[in-house]
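Work Package 4 report. The design task specified in the project plan requires that, given a folded chain encoded as structure tokens, an amino acid be chosen for each position. We show below one input record used in the internal validation round.
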């Protein structure tokens, strides 16, 4: 399959960014150490936990089984969208007013990320939600839902505009932003590595209260934070039934018409999405709902059927035929009620994940709640499942 390397492994096109491809890496752990807190998993959420702990002056060790953001955090669509995966009007109806608190917390998270990483990494482009996808007739129910969302956002003083343009009809959300997700995570890790001990290629092979065991040493600590979204139930089988892993897939194209997508664009209820980088390449994902049964899997490799569907989605977003040069997938966690999970799993051990496909901002928000729970004993907000 095009975009799969000689070893048969897929590779996210985000890694073509010179800052990402030039990443020299962090050491792996070799020997024992002690810390006040050990964070397991250095995706966007684990790194946010490390940052929060550092800001409190705590002594932190962070480990990742692979490179920083080896999982979904470095392989996703790069959308920084306000709110949870469930659209705000629906979340308000299902969860109550706490859904609005989560929406506001995610917008604050964009500000905080931009302040830390700069506007070159966090681009404040806004986002477009389309009813349907470009070039296809809009679905009436999707159109109505866009309007219901716009009405709800307006009612709560969250910026929203009508979009009607070359891509179709929908709404524009000016507060949203976009990143290269791998670059975002590596930039964050670079900033944190000077003050926290961060290790790559250091999997936790056993977790018990106060002890994280890795292949070449153990971390002894007062608190363990497990910051893993997809496959969380494999690391912590006691969470089986509360989180369920799904695969999400993407591809990237050769450059298409410049400025075809003015900002990240998602359509068809958010199931299909694309962003365009400065070189004109499109990064396109979606289709999980079309192949739902097959995509409930812990495999993180792309499949021919979803990728074939994404070829057609890419052509729709591009408005022309496309040449695909990278294909990849990764695992994410889903919860039954759409609320992310942040819960004690043992004495001094908290796990968080299950962002339902939208963890770039919700993950860091949840990480802060996990730190508050573990360090201050503050109960998690209602918008999280505990
Ligand atoms: C194709 C795709 C597109 C997506 N698009 C978007 C989007 O546009 N916007 C958005 O908000 N969300 C999106 N998501 C969801 C988002 O990527 C995730 O919710 C988010 O990245 C989760 O980050 P995380 O840090 O919580 O977990 P993860 O990214 O799962 O990171 C966990 C880390 O833990 C490490 N790890 C796992 N096991 C161990 C172990 N035993 N020991 C040590 N380390 C371990 C992994 O190597 C990994 O680096 C998308 C996901 C995918 C797959």
């Amino acid at each position: 399959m095009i975009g799969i390397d000689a070893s048969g492994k897929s590779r996210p096109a985000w890694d073509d960014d010179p800052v990402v491809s030039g990443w020299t890496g962090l050491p792996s752990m070799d020997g024992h150490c002690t810390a006040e807190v050990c964070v397991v998993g250095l995706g966007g959420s684990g790194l946010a936990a490390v940052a929060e702990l550092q800001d409190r002056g705590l002594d932190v060790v962070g480990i990742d089984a692979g490179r920083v953001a080896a999982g979904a955090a470095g392989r996703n669509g790069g959308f920084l969208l306000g709110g949870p995966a469930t659209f705000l009007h629906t979340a308000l109806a299902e969860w109550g007013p706490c859904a609005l608190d989560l929406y506001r917390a995610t917008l604050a998270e964009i500000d905080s990320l931009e302040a830390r990483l700069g506007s070159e990494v966090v681009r404040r482009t806004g986002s477009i939600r389309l009813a349907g996808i470009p070039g296809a007739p809009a679905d009436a129910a999707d159109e109505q839902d866009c309007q219901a969302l716009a009405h709800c956002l307006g009612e709560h003083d969250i910026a929203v505009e009508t979009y009607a343009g070359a891509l179709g009809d929908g709404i524009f959300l000016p507060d949203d932003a976009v990143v290269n997700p791998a670059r975002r995570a590596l930039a964050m890790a670079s900033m944190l590595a000077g003050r926290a001990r961060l290790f790559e290629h250091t999997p936790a092979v056993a977790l018990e209260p106060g002890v994280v065991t890795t292949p070449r040493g153990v971390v002894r600590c007062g608190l363990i934070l497990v910051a893993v979204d997809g496959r969380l139930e494999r690391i912590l089988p006691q969470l089986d039934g509360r989180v369920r892993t799904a695969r999400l897939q993407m591809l990237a194209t050769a450059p298409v018409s410049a400025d075809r997508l003015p900002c990240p664009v998602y359509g068809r209820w958010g199931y299909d999405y694309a962003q365009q980088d400065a070189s004109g390449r499109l990064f396109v994902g979606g289709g999980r709902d079309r192949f739902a049964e097959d995509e409930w899997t812990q495999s993180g490799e792309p499949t021919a059927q979803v990728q074939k569907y994404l070829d057609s989605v890419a052509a729709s977003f591009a408005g022309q035929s496309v040449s695909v040069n990278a294909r990849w997938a990764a695992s994410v966690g889903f919860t039954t009620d759409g609320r992310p999970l942040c819960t004690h799993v043992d004495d001094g051990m908290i796990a968080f994940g299950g962002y339902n496909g939208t963890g770039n901002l919700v993950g860091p928000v949840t990480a802060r709640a996990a730190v508050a729970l573990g360090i201050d004993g503050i109960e998690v907000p209602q918008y999280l499942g505990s």
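DSSP finds ten helices and 18 strands in the chain. Validation will be extended to a larger panel in the next phase.
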